[in-house]
Amino acid sequence: MSTGVVLLNFGEPSEPTRENVVAYLERIFLNNASLEEADTEEEARERARQLAERRAPGLIEEYEEIGGSPLNPQAEAQADALGEELDARGYDVETYVGMQFTEPFIGDAVEAARGDGVDQLVGLPVYPLCGASTTVAALEELKDETAERDWDVPVAEITGWHRHPLYNEIRAENVRRFTEAHGLDLTDENTELVYSAHGTPRHYLDEGSRYDTYVEEFCEVVGRKLGVESYSLGYQNHENRDIPWTEPDVEELVEEIGESGDIERIVVEPISFMHEQSETLSELDDELREEAEELGLDFYRVPVPHDDDRFRDVLGDLVEPFVGDFDPGYYQFRQCQCSDSPDAMCLNAPVERI
């Protein structure tokens, strides 16, 4: 039996043209239209267009500063590495990349897999921490795209996986190597480890998403591995709509740290990212760095370990029970509580006590 593994991701425009960026933003805002009330789909589309037009100039400038987003080629490299890993494990697998908001779209990945004649699909979002508008939405779109093509193919869904032991070790070791290379000591009372996580609207948390819980527990575990007892956590929020977001905002957090006068330097770990993209290369490396240095803080940002050789092992472990046709429970997968789909499995759900 052949399997198509679709690595799902957000996507970003590789070329920062106005046409590309506005279309990209419109898709994002329309996908999250439930955050605001609209009487008709036409109203929702018009609101998405307005928001996109308003946000586009600033985002274009960010992309121009970083030379276009490197997210897509990094995602392609991860898909290739996973294909090689699964082939080495003896499985007949094709890997594909499907983006929520830029090419290649999730529908493109489904079309390619159907053309290759695979017998089943596995959806694997490359989002370390499960969120409603990322992980869950991407998997829902994957199933919708197969249904729209009347393709009756089994689809296995992998949701939360930040608890994978090797992934935790990769993140902790990556921070440790960075601090050692820069002569930094995270236990120094004048140095603060700052976790920066992608923000999400409070609406999704109120609706049952456990994203903030997962972020907090992951930060705690990585901190323990690093031997750090004190750290700070902030969220990178995109407040394009007048709605509540996760707190604290990382910019406000850094301002508080700087004004306290107790800290001389911060080490920023982008804990919820598995790619370098505008949120890391622009929002952190440029915008947050500038704010920190204006407050008199030395600024260090840990790179995202997207090309760590062991990451293919993590992805391979996540996919293996679904391509190897054995009980996912053997690898500690359980029914996901963040998704309504009966086919969604994760490493985050609590163990049922008998």
Automatic annotation (TrEMBL):
Any one GO cellular component localisation term in the record: cytoplasm
Pathway membership: Porphyrin-containing compound metabolism; protoheme biosynthesis; protoheme from protoporphyrin-IX: step 1/1
Any one GO BP annotation for this protein: heme biosynthetic process
Classification via InterPro entries: Ferrochelatase (IPR001015), Ferrochelatase_C (IPR033644), Ferrochelatase_N (IPR033659)
Residues holding Fe(2+): H198, E279
Molecular functions per Gene Ontology: ferrochelatase activity; metal ion binding
Subcellular location(s) of the protein: Cytoplasm
Catalytically driven reaction(s): heme b + 2 H(+) = protoporphyrin IX + Fe(2+)
E.C. numbers: 4.98.1.1
Pfam families: Ferrochelatase
SUPFAM superfamilies on file: Chelatase (SSF53800)
Alphabetic keyword roster: Cytoplasm, Heme biosynthesis, Iron, Lyase, Metal-binding, Porphyrin biosynthesis
Homology family: Belongs to the ferrochelatase family.
HAMAP family per UniProt: Ferrochelatase
Function comment: Catalyzes the ferrous insertion into protoporphyrin IX.
Protein's UniProt name: Ferrochelatase
Organism: Halorussus aquaticus
Gene name of the encoded protein: hemH
